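Quick one:
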Amino acid sequence: MNVAAVWKMGITGKGVVLTILDDGVQADHPDLIRNYDKRASYDINGGDDNPTPQDNGENKHGTRCAGEIAAEAGNEFCGVGVAYNASIGGVRMLDGTVTDDVEAQALGLNPDHIDVYSASWGPDDNGKTVDGPGHLATQAFINGVRQGRKGRGSIFVWASGNGGKKQDNCNCDGYTVSIYTLSISSATQRGQKPWYLEECSSTLATTYSSGTPTKDENIVTADQSRKPNPAKFCTQVHTGTSASAPIAAGIVALALEANPDLTWRDMQHIVVLTSRYEPLRHESGWVQNAVGRWVSHKFGYGLMDAEAMVKTSLRWKTTPQQVICRTGVDNTEKVIQDDLIVTMNTSACAGTDNAVNYLEHVQARISLKFQPRGNLRITLVSPSGTPSHLLMSRPRDSDEDTFDKWPFMTVHFWGEKPQGILKSWSLVFYGTATPPQDNFPLNNISQTGRILPRRTYDQTLFNNHDDTSVDAGSASASSDDNSYKSSFKSKSESSSLTNLKSPYNKFSNMAPEWLVPLGVVMSIFVITVLVFAAVISLIRIGSKVVGNIELRMRPRSHSSRASNSTASYTKLESEVNLHC
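Output:
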């Protein structure tokens, strides 16, 4: 990830403030005390300004994440943080009941002082939960990007999730599908997909973390301990996407030192432009979108490159102002028989002051009822023909509940043209009228500059998943063999980065358990689809917009319940947001 090359440039995170939203941070840890920032810290669970966790052996997760970012260099302790001269704080908010108000307080802490918020937690990664921020937390995100950092926008870095063994999908996590978060996945030190990785279309980029126990390295970092024994202050078993997000946050801090004027949208653009697919190219599932960017449901736009981000940041001009285009709503009923393809014709407000020409995210806000919910797969096809899977099958999700205006999101169309045909959908376009940036080389475009033949998604995206049992009601955060007593689970597991290594996941020692027996394949699903009010957010960079957008809905057969799969109705609320 070229972190050491940035250090040689004299950039070490100095002047940048980060905070860890977690179970607390040990303020007097010998690897953190020099960089500890009291103004970036608070104990929401205890109601005071000291976020140091309880010394009960369980609450180590936040301290480990903090060490990855800002562990002091040259002190002969655990390792060195990615941004080892950055200021680091912590918010103790997971060591108790996690409510909407608690989340909002954490997300909104001192926004003109804190630059980057790093979070390695989310809804239970059990393969069947659909959950996200409430009203207060959502408003805190919005306030952060609009007002934080004196108007440049708070930067929220989020772990994408550890539910891969349960075939979970991070598009069912309302924190990672937010356009306001930088969603980060994991790769092993060998550039492979780790066992815990969740595939989804909202992941923006990847950093290294742990892989297969006994085969791959974990992350070395600080560890919470009140005992005076130095051996207790470090860990070599930090793991999962819990470890990936803080590494990404540290790289973001390096870019912010290089250019403190970067906005939250600038940072997302720079991540897309500079992330590299080459180190991860041997994994299946890569595809080139219409502007030549390689993208994957596993790794987003690839491995983050600190050196490229810093050099790009030094030359960056502020991204043009966001414009918003909204279209109408069509309530036409549709019937799904095997496949349903819905298209929409849209001009992206061409010829008006709200014309969107350069996209970033695409968010499809869908209300849908289908039983079992996990049998459904939803694919969005851009006007330029790029397919993106908004939802993959989740065999454990037998819920009869609905997706209620759920904001499925994809970043796979970054830079493509938004105008085109998408019938029976309501669109809201967010973006810019002028190019966000000119003449920047892109790390994940072929060196010749040619757009290579389009690659198809490998079928293994949908088949051959391994399973690991998990209690339906469990919601644990990884920290040795202990779990948080809350409805949220920290996203931990492992790999190596210079002197860094990652947090321990309690599931890492669990053997696969085959819970889905082979059986009868479902023949046909007949579903009534009501297109009621959908929101698809397409955010774009780099090219103009014209073409056909298709939404494909397909029931997936899972032998364990194929015989009793039913669908009372499918209600699609779509509001298509094109962010540019």
